[in-house]
Input
Amino acid sequence: MNALQDRPLDPELQTKLANVMLILGQDQAGEEMLEQTARMAPGSAFVHLRAGQALLACGYRSAAAERFQRVLGLQPANFPRVIQMIRGVTGRMAKPLTNGQIVREVLPDSPALLFRFATELLPDEPDLRDELLKGALELLADATFSDHDQMVLRANVQLELGMNEAGMESLEQALDSDPNDKNTRYRLARLLLEAGDLQEAKAHAERLLESSRKIPAYNSLYKEISGQLDIQFREGRN
Output
């Protein structure tokens, strides 16, 4: 309490004190202090993260979910930390939150976060994984050609769902918006090679080499495509 008197406007200190209040059963006082910290530091992901942790540990799931959503809105890169914290806190409870509950209660309608959750955290839940990927694809339905990052994300989602033709089309559209995106061009060339569209794959590989001949992956890709074309040519002559 002395520290709080010395630093009454310190939101991080108030968050810690509110956590103690909640643990001691002083629910109303603890929640009021957490609300005060949110007003004091609305843009602090750390404050919202710690508040969410305290609320969740004391059983206030909906209030905790709201704080975690604020964290993800402020700093999407904190996604792994938020999920780890939720799993750590609820893992000690009689009924830990399932991945489905985490998605419904915590994750905002962000195609990027849905994609990350599906591809990074659900290796053993294929049905939920596909549900999240399809949800992400719906949110990306209105992505325009000018929004390069959204087009690349849409391609990633489509490819994860096995929609290879649609995924390659989205990659081509992403290149239309940014022809200098070498990673996307390399990936598209690889996919075209796997699909047997060797001439188109070669055209993209040549563009990559024009931009930088010193990158081993580009040279290797071009040689691989050229080798396949040679085999195709010899087989055509026989």
About this structure: The mean pLDDT is 86.
